[in-house]
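User: My instructor asked us to take a sequence, write out its structure as tokens, and then describe one feature of it. I'm not sure where to start. Here is the sequence I was given:
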Amino acid sequence: MFSKQIIPPRLILILGGVRSGKSAYAERLAVGSEKTVAFIATATDGDDEMHERIVRHKASRPQEWHTIEAPLDLISALQRAYQLADVALLDCMTLWLGNMLLQDHEKRQSDDQEQVELQISSDQFNEQALQHIEELLAIQQNAEAGKTLIIVSNEVGLGIVPAYPLGRIYRDTLGYVNQRLAQDADRVYLMVASMAVDIKSLHLEASL
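Assistant: Let's start with the prediction itself. The structure tokens for your sequence are:
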């Protein structure tokens, strides 16, 4: 008799620019798995336009999917997602980090030494964000066999340098977050005009 193959927990990272097809591709992967799915939503409806976007996106997802609203606490959200389903789709890391940055900035906004505090905040924010990612990865690595986490994130480092400090902090930290996620991911897809390129498979270590 053949023993049943045990599939370890997997992490899939999907990167790309705005309107590159990231979310649609992630959803196709989730649907194609034919497994139960929990959708971790990080967006907040801070204005009417974003509210309409959230409503449209939610209506477009399969009705049988579970939805978990998690603008900040990804750890509890992933734990809950794996209680409900075999596939967790986190969309997206970009909005989650923006939520964290706004929360951090609001705490420091009343300080008189703004520029000094922004520099301190940059280091502390990087550390805070990456610590959260380490905790998220620990949950993923210790998940039950067959569980899959799909993460959507933007590649924001290809444009011009932001003209304001918060923009530079955000861009840099998201770059570090994406690097850390890609390091542990089983697959890393880069979306270009709705086409997915498996850059993890193409990656080669530097050598002379």
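For the description part of your assignment, you could build on this observation: The domain at 10-202 is CATH 3.40.50.300 (Rossmann fold). Try explaining in your own words what that tells you about the chain.
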